[in-house]
Amino acid sequence: MNIFRLAGDMTHLASVLVLLLKIHTIKSCAGVSLKTQELYALVFATRYLDIVTDFISVYNTVMKLIFLGSSFSIVWYIRHHRVVRRSYDKDQDTFRHYLLMIPCMLLALFVHEKFTFKEVMWTFSLYLEAVAILPQLVLLQRTRNIDNLTGQYVFLLGAYRGLYIFNWIYRYFTEPHFVHWITWIAGVVQTLLYADFFYYYFESWKNNVRLQLPA
Amino acid sequence: LEQPMMHDEL
């Protein structure tokens, strides 16, 4: 475990905590895309199939359980919680997830490292994670005023992806390795999707104004 | 190596 990987995981964890904090304490999911959250739940469910077959470390297992538990509970909150569900921007959150899921599944069936159920599912989860933020970014663009917690949530998610790239560069030079093109390309694509958001996030921070994405 | 390196990541 290197510092970039640990920082990446902690940033990812922080993003989930920020979102849970918003939902749980403010009892609001305004500006949060249910579509993105459902895609993340699917990402973790398909990626962590190995939680029952392979033991890597206590850290690894605990983190997997946290990401699985948090993603499914966030989806539950937005869909079913008596108060939270009323703040959901249903009419704005119109991205159709199957437009992302089907191409990712097809791509995973054709482009993978090994043709086994677990490996294809793992590859599917990488492709899907790369694009899962899109419904959230579209929703942010439609939202006039983005509240601080939602902005921080997306910022932390983007930072997590960026740190993972540094982690791979570090591992590439320090460990005996295979070149995992699929992971690298999916990861870089995912990080690039945040570039625009980052630009406006820093602009709003620098100018001390509320974050707003141009339509 | 049975376990490819990326599989220990989250």
From TrEMBL, chain A:
It is a multi-pass membrane protein. One of its GO terms (cellular component) is endoplasmic reticulum. Keywords: Endoplasmic reticulum, ER-Golgi transport, Membrane, Protein transport, Receptor, Signal, Transmembrane, Transmembrane helix, Transport. It is found in: Endoplasmic reticulum membrane. The chain crosses the membrane at residues 55-78, 98-115, 121-140, 152-170, 182-202. Residues 1-31 form the signal peptide. InterPro entries: ER_ret_rcpt. The keyword Protein transport applies. One of its GO terms (molecular function) is ER retention sequence binding. One of its GO terms (biological process) is protein retention in ER lumen. Belongs to the ERD2 family. This is ER lumen protein-retaining receptor. It comes from Lactuca sativa.
